[in-house]
Amino acid sequence: MVCVSDKMIRIAQIGTKHAHAKGKYDTMLKFPDLFEVVGVVEPDEKRRTEMESNGYEGATWLTETQLFSTEGLRAVVVETEVSELVPTAQRCIESGFHVHIDKPAGTSMSALQQLHETADQAGLTIQMGYMFRYNPGFEFLFDAITNGWLGSITEVNGMIGKSANDLLRLTIARFPGGGMFELGCHIIDPLVTILGPPEGVEAFTFRSHPEKDNLADNQLAVFRYPTAVATIRSNHIDPHKRRKFEVIGEKGAVIIDPLEPPSIKLSLDKKFSRFSEGYQRVDLTLQDGRYDGEFIDFAKVIRNEKKLRWDSTHDLAVHKAILQASEMEVD
């Protein structure tokens, strides 16, 4: 029999092919007081051999069947290719485990709905891996809105870019939604956190290098709300790698630029708390690692110390908005 502390969470990872896989694995190992990482599953034998000496040294390699029969296992982190994220998570949920799933949650709306229905019925948590949820800049933004500092929100603008090389272009081009689907999803999540599901989405998609590939690499989506308009841009031909998010209300504004590490400019029409009227910079306490906050929170949820802030209704609304913004079918 395996003896595990009541506070120690037995956890594992399935998949190593997602862009965030290694970072998530390292973060779990970083918190040995929270997690016991029992193993990693990588069904692709060639990939597994590569990873054994490339970031996963010392890992215990398991088959999925072996993993699911591991005594005391509580949660699984799903870091497969995007096409396998939801099917893999479905098997985990059906086997009785909480799951952390990286983004975006596949191309099928109906498959994601089924996953959440199964989890909700079983009382299990799905934590999506949108990387700005626990970013100190966004945490400050969410608090400012909750505290009423900005007043009624009238405008949200987000931008996330990178300069994709030819190999990355081919990888992302497998999805008709291109960069908005693969990367823009990260800032659609906080938009829906702030304003909820949009009434409508209008997408503008450009493919800049048809001589190379069919990648949708320069995209804009406009989200309509009853009292606000939001725009989200994703640009994979941006040599400056601009990433920013701004929220404007009738009483104030928060501008996060850049997103990592976050730098905030706050504007208020009158003094609130320790902040004065007008524009000012905000000092933030930065986290050590990009994924620290989400795994610390995941542990609290698994221990029943709290509920996850983002529930199935939110995650489904986000995914629908992502598909719409990417001009992908919503089945």
From TrEMBL:
<dbReference type="GO" id="GO:0016491">
    <property type="term" value="F:oxidoreductase activity"/>
</dbReference>
<dbReference type="InterPro" id="IPR000683">
    <property type="entry name" value="Gfo/Idh/MocA-like_OxRdtase_N"/>
</dbReference>
<dbReference type="InterPro" id="IPR055170">
    <property type="entry name" value="GFO_IDH_MocA-like_dom"/>
</dbReference>
<protein>
    <submittedName>
        <fullName>Putative oxidoreductase YhhX</fullName>
        <ecNumber>1.-.-.-</ecNumber>
    </submittedName>
</protein>
<keyword id="KW-0560">Oxidoreductase</keyword>
<dbReference type="Pfam" id="PF22725">
    <property type="entry name" value="GFO_IDH_MocA_C3"/>
</dbReference>
<dbReference type="Pfam" id="PF01408">
    <property type="entry name" value="GFO_IDH_MocA"/>
</dbReference>
<dbReference type="GO" id="GO:0000166">
    <property type="term" value="F:nucleotide binding"/>
</dbReference>
<dbReference type="InterPro" id="IPR036291">
    <property type="entry name" value="NAD(P)-bd_dom_sf"/>
</dbReference>
<dbReference type="InterPro" id="IPR051317">
    <property type="entry name" value="Gfo/Idh/MocA_oxidoreduct"/>
</dbReference>
<feature type="domain" description="GFO/IDH/MocA-like oxidoreductase">
    <location>
        <begin position="143"/>
        <end position="254"/>
    </location>
</feature>
<feature type="domain" description="Gfo/Idh/MocA-like oxidoreductase N-terminal">
    <location>
        <begin position="10"/>
        <end position="130"/>
    </location>
</feature>
